Amino acid sequence: MDFSHKAIEKKWQKIWKEKDVYQTTSNKDKKAYILDMFPYPSGSGLHVGHVKGYTATDVFSRFRRMQGYDVLHPIGWDAFGLPAEQYALSTGNDPREFTLKNIDTFRTQLQTLGFGYDFNKEVNTAHPEFYKTTQWIFEQLYKLGLAELRDIEVNWSQDLGTVLANDEVEIKDGIMVSERGGYPVVKKTMKQWVLKITAYAEKLLAGLETLDWPQSVKELQKNWIGKSEGVEISFKTQTGVDLKVFTTRADTIYGATYLVLAPEHEAVHLISTSNQLSEVETYIKQTKQKSEIDRKDDSKPKTGVFTGAYAINPITKEAIPVWIADYVLNDYGSGAVMAVPAHDPRDWEFATKFNLAIKFVLAAKDQSKAFVGEAKHINSDFLDGLDRQEANRKILERLEAENLGIKKINYKLRDWLFSRQRFYGEPFPVYYTNDGNIGLIDVKDLPVTLPQTSYIKPSGTGESPLANVKEWVEIEVNGQKVKRETNTMPQSAGSSWYYLAYILTDQPNQLIDLESEEAKARFNKWMPVDLYIGGQEHAVGHLLYARFWNHVLYDLGILKTQEPFQKLYNQGMILGPDGKKMSKSWGNVINPDDVIQSHGADALRLYEMFMGPLDASLPWSYDGLDAALKWLNRVFRLVNNTTFSTTNNQELDFVYHDVVKKVTIMVDELKLNTAISQLMVLMNAFYKYEPSTIYQPYIEGFVKMLALFAPHLAEEIWSILGHETSLVNEAWPIYDETKLIASTVTIAFQVNGKLRGTKEVAIGLDKETLIKLAKSDENVDKFIKNKKIVKEIVIFDKIVNIVVN
Ligand code: ANZ
Fold this sequence. Notes:
CATH architecture of the domain at 227-411: Alpha-Beta Complex
Bound molecules: ligand ANZ
Structural class: alpha+beta
CATH topology of the domain at 227-411: Isoleucyl-tRNA Synthetase, domain 2
Oligomer: single chain
Shape: globular
Strand content: 15-25%
Number of helices: 25
């Protein structure tokens, strides 16, 4: 008889909920904080891709719980965001109601999958009780000088009335347009909030070394931070304007034949000569149409304009022309470079196009292109004959001695643009006085909640939709009329600290104060996160922002751990049966609800964990899903209507203890597919025996291990075996090393020291028996036949060597 997954799953989900079995305990000496990247509660519900990562953390949480850890395994909602706002815009509904409805759907789905989340700790980033603390953290950042208003070049779409992120903009026919709708986009300078993550660049780099993260993600973060050590050198124009360039190759200064400034560089107008000015102006305008990605793209032809000015190379004293070109970015280094076309491919391309001088200062054999390798210096006066390191040391010494240059470290990392002209995000706890001063809303008046309004369209002026809500914007502080900030925070604000919010809650969205003593004690107990599972797509954005905030909270003395996520694991994707990424447009999306209906949550979970290594991206297979259900039925049949033995006949000792040991190690290392294989091995072993002779504790050990993957069926079997309470908090099975000594060995049969055969035999056979076995081997017999046996050497449990002549 097959088991009824529908009835069993419903029954146990109800019991778990009523008994609150997944409630976080906090009384043991070991803890495990096991975290999922929380979902954005979209209108389309949970995806089988979510199920993979969430099942893996569920398996691991159940494992740690049975091992006697206090386990924190929460879930919540990354609830602010553009889709809800756009839905609201197009339907006239409130994004809040829409989001809450989606959350209910998501929560139900998670429950039907049998996930052991502690729902008491649920949080929602868009809940005022949550974003009260988001605002509080912003206030701390502001007080620390880590948040400031800055004039920023943003992508502005007049037609959409909003600023767009770089990835919402594309280039069509050479101009920037919005990805949605294809409306023209221009660069525009606007006052925006930025968070100075760059101030933490060094700490964020150093912290990476301490983390158990995939090497690929560490590399991505390292490159994103992009530390570059070089020299800032002063070049003076003939009219006396100081132009500072940043270079990592100060040693090539004898080959610097021109300078290039970013078109936006503040000195451009100052130095451009009158007859070059109009060309310069036109070029600057063209640059405004270009995205940063475009400008960094080395496959695009180089463009640029001569300013008419010359600068003096401070070492060679030569006058060299000053150009502007968009391949030099204004916000990196000093926005100006000394061009060394002989040894930099971009400069080479530029110099050949515009007929500028090229001077080799490294001894390159091939002078038909830029030489970027290592070679001795030439044409470089006192640097001649030196290698790169020595030359760099010497030139820096001289530049510093003559006050012409200083050592400089630059980072590719940009400060974090923190303003959005959107309705559905956290309001800033900020106001402006009439004379333009910035004030923070008093902490006791937090949260600053979003107003109830149906008017959430972009204002069209570049201001946030909130600017339309006069009664919300205009307030009084200390008797003075002031105006609130109307931008909102980006979606990544809430996700930068949500993992701390779980620790602060005992009931959904009821957070204790983050700066309270109780909060500190709780953080000390639970932080850092011991295992964080999520997709690789968050490698830089979210994971860098959250690390930044965690470092700041550490510096504020609120946290005792600098780094929030000790171990990170990226689960692979589940592709469609066609091997393509699941997407509505391919029509290859599998809905977990359908699978739960047809095969049950346990089969779905088991299948997803068994399909291959957790970090591999693999296609969905219904055959695999069928096989998972079939195996669960095989398990059920063995135990249903069976009475097992209360005495151990020891027949299964080895395989049982071997499997327990392997599963324990494999789950610990997240090798979940091979752990399941081991459970299958054990099941096959059980099936070799008359069920009534199988030792019941071995069946129970098996059921506990099964519970990680198929918790509903495991509970059902547990109760069939006569237990009255849930197995969620049962102790993990232990293995006995003494049972793991193999009972057989493989003996090598040799003739004159050459291997002629092998045989698996019982351990501890005596000399005579071993020799007899060797001689009865057909192949051995061939080599000793009609020969005189001189000697018979036996190494017990290993080798029998027969010497003949
Ligand atoms: C002279 C030179 C000679 C350079 C040479 C390279 C090779 P990192 O920091 O590793 O990316 N550079 C500096 N500021 C720039 C800017 N704002 N936009 C575009 N390019 C810029 O590399 C620093 C090098 O990139 C600097 O060293 C500079 O070119 C260029 F054989 O200076 B170099």
